[in-house]
Request: fold
Amino acid sequence: MVEDDYTLIPLPNMHTQNLIVIIEYTKKHGEKTNSNEEEIKEFDKEFMKDKSYQNMFELVIAANYLHISDLMNLLCQTIADRIKNKSVKAVRQIFGLINDYTPEEEEKVREEHTWAHEGNEIDESLD
Reply:
């Protein structure tokens, strides 16, 4: 006779919905083989498609806590891709950062790092 061994795993500040999403991800990636690599890439693309920034931030914290590095890398890459070419103002809003620079300090930084703005179309949207 096999006895059920119930071990409580603490998951502080993790929403049930995020845990369901993480389980979905790990199940699919558990099926990963060389022959279905394209299928996994398509799954990842679809998996990230409609995630909000807030949801991705929560999932990054959960993936880090659970040591699921592939998911954490996917989330971080998706966030990086989405903020690429965003204006400083938009990135601040996305991450909930307060601008503590004076206009003079901001102009000085912009002048010192003109390379960061060259050839880029600045995207003001928050999506």
User: Anything to note?
Assistant: The chain has two domains: 14-22+43-84, 87-127. The chain has a mean pLDDT of 88.
